[in-house]
């Protein structure tokens, strides 16, 4: 077994055991070199391996830059909660609602662009390939950790009618904004795949290039047109997507049963 793999496994075991709690810095490269009596390149490779496993990322703690330990375990995402017919009015979007439900502290960094979307997205939206779309990007953060990126594409005319062509985030979420504008979503199709992080993903999610990602693509429609195409890039090995269908009473029973018997 290569030395960097052995070192990564040792550090992973220590992280799991709580030697290095979430939100704290690992020892410096220099300290790890001395501890394991290996080169800096070997330590860098071991840290990259931990990053691919979603256990650490680069950042700042108390003004010091270093390798930060991520939270342990998987985060549940209830993908159907935002689609429930009995979902009430709220000042929070679906991401924030879900984070609070699973006991995590959410925050976001938001940006809006107007640009030509990829051809396949233009086709789904039903717009010409040379036409710009409104692209709303939410960089989602849990407990201070980069966790996911949501990129949603909207036809320009629809975005203007729903007030989505703004550089401001909408705390209540775009699903409610679309409904208020007369474009209530009545159907969605989700496609889930796994991908490897590219350079842009690595920068946004604080993972090494090649790290595993869970990618969810949602195409939604009102009764008259496609409303949006959304892509969610989430950390692999650190997330679990959950779809719930059926009567609310039965679903509450299933949730309680899952919580009492959760093994991962």
UniProtKB/TrEMBL annotation:
Keywords for the protein's UniProt record, in alphabetical order: DNA-binding, Transcription, Transcription regulation
Domain of life: Bacteria
Domain HTH gntR-type: 1-72
Gene3D superfamilies linked: Chorismate lyase-like, Winged helix-like DNA-binding domain superfamily/Winged helix DNA-binding domain
SUPFAM superfamilies the UniProt entry points to: Chorismate lyase-like, Winged helix' DNA-binding domain
CDD domains: WHTH_GntR
Name of the protein in question: GntR family transcriptional regulator
